[in-house]
Write a structure and sequence with these properties.
Radius of gyration: 22 Å
Helix content: over 70%
Largest sheet: none
Distance between the termini: 39 Å
Order of helices and strands: HHH
Number of strands: 0
Structural class: mainly alpha
Number of helices: 3
Number of domains: 1
Length: 75
């Protein structure tokens, strides 16, 4: 398995155009992976909501709780 150092060394041997292509490919794949993670998290959250793990709250209650949490010292 390649180490990060080896991958970087190999990438620097590419032409500038190929390096730019590699950067774009890596960014796109990273974004796709992140979108998939967010979608999976959203699906799990919806499933949790439908099974009753979360209670119904008004938007005002949620905003108040968020504001209060911002004023609390970190643990």
């Amino acid at each position: 398995m390649s180490t990060l150092e080896q991958v970087l060394k190999d990438a620097l041997q590419l032409s500038s155009e190929q390096q730019e292509m590699l950067i774009k490919i890596l960014q796109n794949r990273h974004h796709e992976n992140r979108r998939a993670e967010i979608a999976a998290d959203a699906q799990q959250t919806l499933a949790d909501f439908h099974t009753g793990k979360f209670r119904h709250q008004s938007a005002q209650d949620v905003i108040s709780a968020l504001r209060q949490s911002l004023n609390e010292p970190e643990k």
